[in-house]
Amino acid sequence: QPNLAMILGGTGARLEDLVGAYTALIREGVAGRVRYRPGDPRIDRRLLSPGAAWIIRETLEANPRPGSVADTFDPGGRPRVAWKTGTSWGLRDGWAVGVTRRHTVGVWVGNASGEGRPGLTGSTMAAPLMFALFNGLPASPWLDAPMHALRTVELCANDGYLATEFCRSEPAWIPRDARFTLLSPHHTRVHLDA
């Protein structure tokens, strides 16, 4: 039901809907309804552009697994996973969803009664189970960037707007069809008299 959390971008969702939406990250932006049997019909819907799906997937995959330290931990051949967790208000439930090239896994933890429990979060309860499931699945290669759907722009390193001549810039990928035109309003030349 709609509630005050919607103001902050939060709303309720079924685990099946989250898993279906996350499939868009590995299917060039096309989400699919969860199928429980191989013969079930496919119900697909475009959710994102191919470029946006790749950018989001790469961002989520760059998030290290819990307990690993970047550049010092050998993942031991574990699959690359683009993943995200969430926790409801009041610690009533937690979830974790992740994707590899061939699999999408969603895990929900909580109480059927909806009662909250201290320490019940997506990152501490659902994510370890999700990663254990991924570790048991066959490995699959990662997806290449859809170069036909991407372009690079120079962004201002300090604020994320398009760079001007007055700020340090860094390249970033954006979807080819994105209408990204806002120049940095924070780095401008100001002329003052004595």
Estimate the global geometry from the Cα principal axes: globular
By helix and strand content, what is the structural category? alpha+beta
Distance from first to last alpha carbon? 61 Å
* H and E order: HEEHEEEHEE
Q: What would the average pLDDT be, to the nearest integer? A: 87
Q: Share of helix among residues? A: 10-25%
Largest sheet strand order: 3-4-5
Beta-strand residue percentage: 15-25%
| Tally of separate helices | 3
How many individual β-strands? 7
Main sheet attributes: strand count, strand direction, barrel closure: 3 strands, antiparallel
Would you mind describing this structure in some detail?
The chain has 194 residues and is an alpha+beta fold. The protein contains three helices and seven strands. The strands form three sheets. Strands 3-4-5 form a three-stranded antiparallel sheet, sandwiched between helices. A two-stranded antiparallel ribbon has the order 1-2. Strands 6-7 form a two-stranded antiparallel sheet. β3 and β4 form a beta hairpin. The termini are far apart.
